[in-house]
Amino acid sequence: MISFFLFTLSLASSCLSQYWQKHAALLFHSQPQLSLVQKAFAKPMLLALLSLGVSFLAWLGVLSKWDVSVAYPLLSLNFVIMLLVAKYAFAETVYKRQWLGVALIIFGVILIAGGEQ
Question: What is the pTM of this model?
């Protein structure tokens, strides 16, 4: 149970990190006059780094309990979540081939998760 929690925490915080990285990139693009120090201490940048740190620590917990051959492919769910975030949070266009890729990823995750340990 704890390993599932750690995996979920790692996945969620990794996605949050990418979400905040996108916000930081948008901020830097809209305000090119920001200094390097201002960029480093911008709220989205700090939240991205914090989320990335949580993801890293949770991932270490996952790797201590699961085989990497199972854990790492399951992390590809990150692609699925971020495609949905791109579409709904950032109003990006998502094409049919991307949806097909997501379907293949989900199929692969089902195969891996249902495999023998």
Answer: 0.86
